[in-house]
Amino acid sequence: MNPQAATIRWQLWIVAFGFFMQTLDTTIVNTALPAMAHDLGVSPLHMHSVIVSYVLTVAVMLPLSGWLADRVGVRNIFFSAILLFSLGSLFCALSGTLNQLVMARVVQGIGGAMMVPVGRLIVMKIVPREQYMAAMTFVTLPGQIGPLVGPALGGVLVEYASWHWIFLINLPVALVGAIATITLMPNYSLPTRRFDFSGFILLAIGMAALTLALDGQHGLGISPLLLGVLILAGIFCLLFYLLHARNNNNALFSLKLFDNRLYALGLLGSLTGRIGSGMLPFIAPIFLQLGMGYTPFHAGLMMIPMVLGNMGMKRIVVQIVNRFGYRNVLVGSTLALAGVVLLFPLVALLGWVWALPVVLFLQGMINAIRFSSMNTLTLKELPDDLASSGNSLLSMIMQLAMSIGVTVAGLLLGTFGNAAVAGSIIAQHTFIPTYLCMALVIALPALVFWRVPADISKNAFLNRQGKSSS
């Protein structure tokens, strides 16, 4: 391996570490939600605010993180992100009420907004565009250790210690990441234009208002009048941003991005596709604990086959996309995921416990193909002058879609059942219509992916010599 290729590998490993921190925290929290709800005195079906507060904060802060990374350098922002993430984790562990926990998750979200998206931007800067898919596959594969150990570790901590330790465990992990960032990461920076503060405020208010409105009366207990105000405020802010960005060279996200048809299709597919996928990590652990009566540790262990399936496909996803094309892979994986999502509760309620790991393994495989294809399709043909802006917008849309997905999942659970006894027939019936609705939401983006052109250039591989090959 030549010195330049070795340097790039080290930088990719640091980015992978950021992915690891994010996924470890998310998967531990999902497993611990019922225990946290019991300790805080709220219903487990209303705990989606803990997830939404984090991912929505990340979505809102993403545009600022991209501009800051260009202005003061990726190493400085990455290091600051780790410190904020650690501080938020400490506040989460010290929380005594749901509101305190939600506020602490907001602090975590500010750190998270400056971690993975900046890492993705680093990858775009250090590898040729034709190697982007292979480089992102390399980065996300080590990051899968987080979801591999997260569910089981979260179950162990909740069952044998307390849920507070799912946040305290982030502190030593963050220490290692901070040291590696300071010592190994170059401080890439670029000349920046004036920050579009007006556009940032319009987008932030619009996204936050619409997400809170989606949570509605059930999740937040807001009045119908305030609900209407939130919806109108969200819609008008987004419309005003479009007027603000038209013919504005300093706009936060240039409307020229949408002149690229592939980017526009990929962005719409990522938004609609991740709403359905965002429901799964929230629903599955709750279903296993409340619907099937599993312990937190057992529910955590059941998530491991899904992660193994995801990791197993990362190495060959480039070959699959090159062989069948983006359109066929995205349409096929989207419909297949909807089918597997329906299969999971069916197998569980029939009592075929031995088949649950197999179904989850398949779900992980399909998700790996789908996510890798969606992400790289969107950015594949963007010109260099729009790459940073396009990446930031994609990252924001991904986080927004995840927050909408978790909110919709919580809304569905709240609609079909409230205080159900864990493992009872009532609890199981709560999840049947929820999974049916989820499968429909997951399948609909196939209509978007069907419009993807069939003649997209193939991806190159990332080998140890730093050379591309088809």
Q: How much helicity do the residues have?
A: over 70%
Approximate shape: globular
What is the rounded Rg? 21 Å
What would the average pLDDT be, to the nearest integer?
A: 79
Proportion of residues in extended strands: under 5%
Structural class: mainly alpha
Could you spell the SSE succession in H and E letters?
Answer: HHHHHHHHHHHHHHHHHHHH
Biggest β-sheet, characterized?
Answer: none
Number of strands: 0
How many angstroms separate the termini? Answer: 20 Å
**Low-confidence segments:** 419-424, 464-470
List keywords for this structure.
single chain, mainly alpha, 470 residues, 0% strand
What order do the helices and strands come in, and which of them pair?
Elements: H1 3-40, H2 48-72, H3 74-94, H4 98-113, H5 116-126, H6 132-143, H7 145-160, H8 165-168, H9 170-184, H10 197-220, H11 224-245, H12 261-291, H13 296-302, H14 304-314, H15 317-324, H16 326-349, H17 356-379, H18 384-416, H19 425-443, H20 446-449
